[in-house]
Amino acid sequence: MAQNVWDNLSTIKGQVAQYAKSAQENEWISTEECDGILEKLEKDTLTIGVIGQMKCGKSTFLNALLFKDNVLPVASTPMTAALSVITYGEKEEVVAEFYTPEEWKEIAILANSSADEPKIKAAKELVERSRVLGSRLTDLLGTTQSASFGDLLEYVGADGKYVAITKSVTIKYPEERLKGVQIVDTPGFNDPVVSREERTTEFLAKADVVILLLYAGRAFDETDKDILFEKVKNVGVGKIIIGVNKYDLAVANGELEETIREHVISAITKAVREKNDIVLNGLLGQPNPILLSANMALLGLMPIDKIMSDEDLKWHYNETCNNFEISTQKEIFAKSKLTDLENEINALLANGKIDALFRKPINEIQGRVNAKKGEYETQLLELSDEKKSLSLSDNDLEDKLISYRKAEKKIKRSIAEKEDDIKDFVSEQVRDTLYILKKERNTAIERLHRIINDSKSKEIKYKIENAIREVNPMFEEKYQDFCIHIKSKFKSISNDLIFDLEEIICGCYDDDDEKTRDFKGIYRKELQKFDNLSFDELFSAKDVKERKGRGAVLGVGVAIAFGAIGLGVLGVRELIHIWQNSKYKDELRAQVDNLMPLDVIEKSFEPVHEHVDDFINFFKTRFLDDLLTPVIQNIEEIQQKECDKELKKTEVEAKIIELTSKKEKINIQLNEVNSYIKALPY
Description:
Mean pLDDT is 79; it is low at 75-80 and 543-576. The protein has a nine-stranded mixed beta sheet with strand order 4-3-5-2-6-1-7-8-9, sandwiched between helices. It is 66% helix and 7% strand. Helix 19 runs antiparallel to helix 25 (584-593). It is an alpha/beta fold.
């Protein structure tokens, strides 16, 4: 059986933690830095959103995926049910959060409306169901309540006592694999309470993966289209997996697996084409629906004695075996195809969560090791050259000094030329990108003004939300294009400069080919950090740690990448209050004018210039400060001082032996590092 996604994540966390501790023991990183990596591994959360209409089998799916048993009650998420978050807890517990008095007031206002809209109908239903609480209603609002698993339906069930006032429930389960994991079960988007719908949107926007579960018997019907095209699209979801559940029922009725898949692919492709939407094209341009049977997976994972002691489970077990001509739980689980979906999750995480959480500390530590090795290589070259200089005559020493000073001038000139080149290029790219962004911003604001002027009051809020959400992908695309161009320029300049500097350096160290190859290889590895700059790193200040971590990220560039530019200074709740104000259109127009502030857009590019300076300083430091300048100073010292050259040579030889030993040790440590990296299952 393939490794479960949670087990996979747990395994990688353990290996990266071991890797960080080893790096600290070898003094590659400080104790503080190691503790920071371990803390992030401990606190970082994997978030997976699960969406789908009623009766698609979400509860059974979650039971199979998470618990391998019937833990969650089936069909516990009606349209009015709360958002459910499943995560780790020391004991089995349900924690319900009830609406605040202010939020309940909003529901009551909607419920008194005569309009025939889904949210208003839901509000009326909630108010009606709340009557069962009587005088307790006021006391419960704004509080949380803890309960046992057995009482879960009271909060999320169709007839639950508290379902009317439950904003969200957190389901805690003492399963080690759920540490650092949260599964978000979203029952619906037509929520009468803005704050709860905002929370659903917030969870899905930050989700590492979102799973849309379809029912094979009616895969991708109009309700599914509405969920995906009108709801999910506007949340900012970046990665979505389509799961087609209950495929076994369709197969039992004579359908072929490939026919089911082709039907879903055709329906999604056609709908996306008709929409002609850039967001949908990005999400579902090449749909890959995964067939599965959550019920079969559960039958393959539950304790067999529990299955055989329950008549209903036993019947389903035998029916499944007969339909697929199999006889064991292992075969049932294999036929469930749940592993296919888990593999898809793992594949997406490998390019997202694992990159952010694991590759970055690994790359940082490996960079430290390579930098340390580079220091040794540079020092060995310097000592080797000093040893030779001590053997030269005064005339030969003077000739050597002249040669090195010429090399120094050439290197300075070459670096200065490339510095001008890359700074001019970046300035031009920033100018062109800003022009496009400002133009698109003005177009977006004009469109919002037209919506405010031409739309009915009750339509404005939703139309503005949709319009703003359509701006996000366009902005992000421009930032991504800019990022690609800058990284490409980094690579081009690196190749040119390394080539030029190699020729100059090799002219000085022509008797040390092996050593020069070593240090050049180290420098090339160090330069990879500029090739590997991520989108958010490029738009983050270099001293971000001094500015209290990731919260110090500058500008809208990163915000857009996470779908966060949203309504700028204008929030959804503010829109409701403005809507209730008689001068709401004037206020809306004023708010819209402040969206996507120009000064914020301009400042978002400031960190890029910092990275350019860092890039150029790398060459100045490595090839001048660390390599040539010390050698020139050493020659000058030999010329100026009268010393016992043979004694000095003996001291230098001792240092060479010591450094060679350190270099061999770090090579062993590097092999150890590589073994850790190879062991990571991604």
